[in-house]
DNA sequence: CTGTATCCGCCCGGATACTG
DNA sequence: CAGTATCCGGGCGGATACAG
């Protein structure tokens, strides 16, 4: 019984994680969402904030994020085109995910920094 | 000041997320970890549990997971080779990440199921 | 059983040029 | 500014065969 329970739990967990990764997985989606957490941004602003992303990829990611209900795209002017991307309320539901991931990432970075220094006994650098 | 603070917070968050995604990002790593949460598993067992992964990719992912300290690889027999993969204590630090991600994934799946049904008024199909 | 080596097709994504 | 179109090279990853 306990084994079955574990197996079922695992299956459900795998399915849930699968669903999550399907919409917020990949290299950029979470970064874009984080970049928008400090307020709405325009296209080039986003590209500057999310370091390393190309216009082509950013464009595609923004479309998917909009389709999945995480952001809204608003055109504010036509002459010089001004477009603004903003997080929706639904993206607030990612708060726990983002918080735990940021927290873990910071912890892991610290752990790496600490464990990589003591290579040499004379490693008294920096 | 508040703006600067936001910008710095965003940068730190982006860096942290970047570190996290670097080691647990991608299509498979979290699924493998979840598959091992119900106990240690062998290679083929893992391949059966983590649906869709090929031997080649599973092998590579396991190596990276081991290098990054999430799992241990133990050889139990040589004649018919028996290898066991097991989560390390360090992978326990991912608990919050996995919990929030599973929770969100389940919520999202439910939301999708609810919002996708009412397409047609006659949509009473299977 | 637990992988690895090789081949290879396909797609991701960079670069560039272009449009509205 | 906010993208899009096209080209194109590298690499991801499947299939298969093979090794220990």
UniProtKB/TrEMBL annotation, chains A, B:
Organism for this UniProt entry: Spirosoma soli
Superkingdom field: Bacteria
Domain HTH hxlR-type as annotated: residue spans: 10-113
Transmembrane segments: none
Name of the protein this chain belongs to: Winged helix-turn-helix transcriptional regulator
InterPro entries found in the cross-reference section: HTH_HxlR, WH-like_DNA-bd_sf, WH_DNA-bd_sf
PROSITE patterns according to UniProt: HTH_HXLR
UniProt cross-references to Gene3D superfamilies, sorted A to Z: Winged helix-like DNA-binding domain superfamily/Winged helix DNA-binding domain
A Pfam family reported for this protein in Swiss-Prot or TrEMBL: HxlR
Protein keywords: DNA-binding, Transcription, Transcription regulation
């Amino acid at each position: 019984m306990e084994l079955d329970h574990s197996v079922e739990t695992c299956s459900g967990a795998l399915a849930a994680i699968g669903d999550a990764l399907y919409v917020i997985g990949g290299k950029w989606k979470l970064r874009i969402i984080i970049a928008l957490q400090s307020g709405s941004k325009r296209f080039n602003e986003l590209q500057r904030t999310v370091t390393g992303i190309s216009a082509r990829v950013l464009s595609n990611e923004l479309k998917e994020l909009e389709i999945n209900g995480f952001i809204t795209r608003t055109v504010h002017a036509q002459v010089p085109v001004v477009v603004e991307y903003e997080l929706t309320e639904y993206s607030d539901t990612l708060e726990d995910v983002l918080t735990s991931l940021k927290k873990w990432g910071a912890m892991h970075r610290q752990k790496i920094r600490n464990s990589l220094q003591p290579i040499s006994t004379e490693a008294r650098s920096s």
